Amino acid sequence: MTLSPIKIPVVYPEPDGSPMAESDSNRDYLVYGVESLKIHFQEEEDVYVSGNLWLCYEQGVSNAVVSPDVFVIFGVDNRPRKSYKVWLEQGKTPDWVLEVTSSSTRSKDEQEKPVTYARMGVSEYFQYDPSGDYLKPALKGQRLTKNGYSTITPKYLENGTIVVPSLVLGLELWLFPNGELRFFNPQRGEFLRTYREERERGDHEQQRAEQERQRAEQQQQRADILAAKLKELGIDPSDLV
After folding, report:
1. Distance CA 179, CA 129 (A)
2. Residue 19: predicted pLDDT
3. What pLDDT does residue 179 have?
4. Does residue 121 sit in the same domain as residue 144?
């Protein structure tokens, strides 16, 4: 009697609660990238934005995984996931990826991940180094061609700001001289914001509206006082016009 070999189930990575970045700046820009893009695409039901999430790209191979810092996938449900398994998502892999480079990830970001992402069919691969120590220039975009990735030619503004366009996102990535990275929406002429920045903007607009209301009330009160004084003097306000 021949015994069938025991099949050991494949265990794919799941969240382990470990820190998602090794420095404040890396974490801050990871959060900015995910949150600002989530807000930008929040009305789109078939655009999935995430980051620092295990992405399993080959069924049955537990180590065929990557964890992009920020990524966007078009054509899949916009819903929360514990991990992303390509074979359960109609074979859809990321269309756009951003890696926030650091001393510990520099080698993989420059050598291993471009090969992996090209094989997966990631249309655009961006790298950003908040410290400016490991990547020159600190922001680099690449677009997939039949011969692999080709560097996206950046634009340089007069103040030294570097602008790299993303055809996939329909946005621009701006790297300011102080090292700050922001997404810019050229159609609306504004930079993308995080949830906190959105709340602060709303609070500011509400405060400004309240100030305008109070100013209008004060003007009306002054007008009423003046009209009352003119009436006491027997002067018709219309005669003063």
Report:
1. 8
2. 43
3. 94
4. yes
